[in-house]
Design a protein that fits this description.
α1 packs parallel to α7 and α2 packs parallel to α6 (186-196). This protein starts with a helix and ends in a 6-residue tail after the last helix. It is of the alpha/beta class. 37% of the residues lie in helices and 25% in strands. It has one domain: Rossmann fold. The longest helix is centred in the last third of the chain and has 22 residues, at 218-239. The mean pLDDT is 94.
């Protein structure tokens, strides 16, 4: 989201804008690491284009996706963070030619996230979430009624739909009982990275429960909670990586 990107750019001392395919790619350093920061845009195709440009034009050696998602599984609540271990496109359905959710001609419905990056991100999430007041202030905690935020690891599902009815959320939970949360890009970027053999990780802050109340105050949540989580988490992860010359 734009608010997350702005927070990151404010911490990049040397970012240069490079415009490709109508997108602004910000090339520079963050915590001493060479990075390219970009908005994925919304939806599977837009995010797949952005990912492809990152790999083809900028030679990215890994892609880490941050953003927000709707919680599906019981106990995945607003303010929690999901680090994906695998990702699936819930609206892919070429049945009866191929099993539901399978990507035609790939024989695959679930893309594995990189375990090393996932483990490193999870370690910093556990640390950063310990003190949400320090991160977003007491007002932010009160405004969004955050309880002790939790880390979840598992299946993240993506589709070209903002899930905003309880009926659809229940249908997805029945169809994919191990899905933790739903968003609109991750699994398409995972597919691009799979095809290029590049490590991929995704980390999402839960902004809603993908139910009848899901539209809520989305922009405000991203600005107050998710962008600060992303900044702290990406910062802590990058700061822990070995220096690159
Ligand atoms: N991103 C954040 N919340 C979402 C939802 N409910 N459905 C799809 N994408 C989301």
């Amino acid at each position: 989201m734009r608010e997350e990107l702005s927070a990151l750019l404010a911490q990049m001392p040397d970012e240069q804008r490079v415009r490709v395919a109508g997108r602004d790619f910000w090339v520079g350093h963050l915590h001493g690491q060479p990075v390219v920061a970009v908005l994925s845009r919304i939806g599977k195709v837009a995010a797949a284009i952005t990912a492809t440009v990152l790999l083809e034009r900028f030679g990215a050696r890994a892609i880490v996706f941050t953003g927000v998602a709707g919680g599906l599984a019981p106990g995945v609540n607003v303010g929690d963070v999901v680090v994906a271990t695998e990702l699936l496109q819930h609206d892919m359905d070429a049945s009866p030619l191929f099993p539901k959710h399978e990507i035609p001609l790939m024989g695959l419905s679930r893309f594995a996230a990189d375990p090393d990056i996932g483990n490193a991100l999870s370690a910093v999430v556990a640390d950063v979430l310990r003190d949400p007041v320090a991160l977003i202030g007491q007002e932010g905690v009160d405004e969004f009624g955050l309880q002790a935020p939790k880390l979840h690891r598992g299946l993240l599902i993506s589709g070209d739909r903002f899930v905003s009815t309880t009926a659809e959320s229940i249908a997805l939970q029945h169809e994919l009982p191990d899905a933790l949360a739903v968003e609109m890009e991750g699994a398409s970027v995972a597919q691009v990275c799979h095809d290029y053999g590049v490590p991929f990780a995704a980390m999402r802050t839960i902004s809603d429960r993908a139910d009848d109340a899901a539209h809520g105050d989305f922009a405000c949540f991203v600005a107050v909670v998710a962008s600060r989580y992303s900044l702290a988490l990406i910062g802590a992860w990058l700061a822990g990586l070995p220096a690159v010359n």
